[in-house]
Amino acid sequence: MQAVRFHEHGGPEVLKYEAAPDPKIAANEVLVKVKACALNHLDLWLRRGVSDWKLPLPHIVGSDISGEVAEVGSLVKRVKTGERVLLCPGISCGQCEACFKGLDSACRNYAVLGVFVDGGYADLVKAPEVNVIPIPGDLSFDEAAAVPLVYLTAWHMLFTRAQLRPGEDVLVIGAGSGVGSAAIQIAKAVSARVIATAGADWKLDKARALGADEVINHSRQVISAEVRRFTGKRGVDVIVEHVGAAVWEECFNSLATYGRLVTCGVTSGGEVKLNLQSLFGRQRSVMGSFMGGKAELLEALKLIARRKLKAVIDSAFPLREAAAAQRKMESREFFGKILLHP
Ligand SMILES: [Zn+2]
Question: What is the mean predicted confidence (pLDDT) over 73-97?
Fold first, then answer.
């Protein structure tokens, strides 16, 4: 097969479009002919190298995949050759206490497609049968690839971690990101009031189109001051955050009493200061969130199939132009998911 691999860590130039061995499936696995693969920030981290993660090299990234089933292992019963499918990116053992509780990403053997196993920047990818989900309704391959990682992440953040209640005020940082564009829609689906931030006005227009009630341009406005204005000085109940250090203090100061700040990323750095007096005095919570469970993805897919939530697609590139696609993501000049087509 053809794939985009890197043999060493570095900039986008280390991505090579080249021939690679076809994946060999085990008895419980499925081989999928990739039709679309969406980029995530995770891909950039992995390409650059994460200090305490030792990746097998050469490596194929890509966690959000849709395609057609090309081959099934001898123990596979539910999935059929030729079926249109998307892949749940989180691979867990299915046999431990965390897995039984539906907390897949707490599984000791948790892996993510494209992280320690080869991913979807390729013609073919393999995955366990339990990760293979039929594409619901009339969703296109592009829409299906744009959904999994960001929707299961945003769902886990808002409902499982922050315990969002209908009608609460939610601040979504980085509306143009995949998680941001998903979180706006999910929060609106339960009648929350959504305040969204972005660094460019054209992105704020798109955030409004997705349902954001209020918007903040965080490159020229002070987030906490705008939040106080929008909420009558009260602050927001829930914050969905994935930027890290650059917005930390502004986010923390935007929380209402009993507010919950959920973070799932550190694109601007992970070291921050925390004022404990404001934490206990206002009874606030700061919580981390990492991926989510298969059940959460299935829940989100129900609303996506009914077009209550939609996949937000920025653009698509041929697989061989993966480096250009990643440069676009690094430039921040995008809104929603960037896709690759083998
Ligand atoms: Zn497990």
Answer: 97
Separation of CA 81 and ligand 1 centre (Å): 27
What distance in angstroms lies between residue 91's CA and the mean position of ligand 1's atoms?
9
**CA 141 to centroid of ligand 1, rounded, Å:** 29
Average pLDDT for 281-305 = 96
Note whether 141 and 84 are within 8 A (CB). Answer: yes
pLDDT at position 293: 93
Q: Mean pLDDT throughout 16-37?
A: 98
Phi, psi of 41 (to 5 degrees): -55, -30
pTM, rounded to two decimals: 0.95
pLDDT at 50 (0 to 100): 85
Question: Is there a cis peptide before residue 58, judged by omega within 30 degrees of 0?
Answer: yes
Res. 107 pLDDT band, cuts 50 70 90: very high
Q: Which residues surround ligand 1, an ion (CB under 5 A)?
A: 92-93, 96, 99, 107
Give distance in angstroms: CA of 293 to centre of ligand 1. Answer: 11
Give the count of beta carbons closer than 10 Å to the beta carbon of residue 306. Answer: 10
Residues 226-253 have a mean pLDDT of 96
CA of 179 to the centre of ligand 1 (A): 25
Evaluate if residue 210 carries a pLDDT over 90: yes
d(C-alpha 151, C-alpha 142), whole Å:
15
- Residue 49's identity, in one-letter code, is G
Q: Which residues of 318-328 are buried (b: 16+ CB within 10 A; e: fewer)?
A: ebbbbbebbeb
- Centroid of ligand 1 to alpha carbon of 105 (angstroms): 8
- Residue 292 three-state SS: coil
Q: How far is the CA of 106 from the centre of ligand 1 (A)?
A: 7
Alpha carbon of 99 to ligand 1 centroid (Å): 4
Burial class from Cβ neighbours inside 10 Å (0-12, 13-18, 19+) for residue 298 reads middle
Residue 268's pLDDT is what? 86
Residue pair 90/294 in contact (Cβ under 8 Å)? The answer is yes
| Mean pLDDT on 161-182 | 96
